[in-house]
Specification:
By secondary structure, the protein is α+β, with helices and mostly antiparallel strands. The protein is built from five helices and three strands; from the N terminus they run ααβββααα.
Length: 183
């Protein structure tokens, strides 16, 4: 069911409040259809999380004497997009991988909507950063320069192993005393 047209300014509650308070006050309206407290919408797309939007919004209107926030109405939706442990929801991804999936939110947390295997190309795109992160952890635990170099090389922001080596060596030098020794 598609939403109807948005009401004009006059009947919306922030403008009604403004008219009741008078000229000595300024009421700002920051409404956005479908916004929730903490989740983006898996069907409508991103930018729906009030928790992500609120801090920059408040900063953009500083100084403020008072704020009134109404969130929660849209949290009665049934389905949200959440980042969670795979646990077999995508069969051809590692069980312990963190993945973003549609889920129903219940009293026991997210109930992930399982899906079939993802196509090989998309799986490869998802596995590359996952493997890079795992190699970073292994490099740190084992003190392995080779694994750290492989992790940097797998990172999509690094164009080649040569560049990865230069970046890694620079980072080791800049962070001596903070990083484990890599052999």
């Amino acid at each position: 069911m598609a939403p109807g047209p948005r009401y004009g300014e006059a009947p919306r509650w922030p403008m009604l409040l403004q008219s009741l308070l008078g000229e000595g006050f300024r009421v700002l309206e920051e409404g956005f259809g479908g916004r929730t407290i903490a989740f983006d919408d898996p069907v409508e797309g991103g930018f729906k999380s009030g928790m992500q939007y609120l801090p920059p919004c408040l900063l953009s209107h500083n100084p403020l004497d008072m704020i009134v926030v109404m969130l929660g109405t849209n949290d009665t939706k049934q389905r949200f997009l959440v980042i969670c442990q795979n646990k077999g929801a995508i069969p051809n991804m590692p069980y312990d991988a963190m993945v973003e999936l549609p889920a129903y939110i219940g009293k026991n947390g997210p109930e992930v909507i399982s899906r079939d295997n993802i196509p090989l190309f998309q799986q490869g795109l998802m596995m590359q950063p996952l493997n890079s992160e795992k190699l970073v952890v292994e490099a740190t635990i084992e003190g392995s320069y080779e694994k750290a170099l492989k992790a940097f090389t797998l990172n999509k922001t690094v164009p080649s192993m040569k560049v990865a080596k230069e970046v890694l060596d620079d980072m080791i030098e800049a962070n001596k005393g903070f990083w484990p020794e890599l052999n």
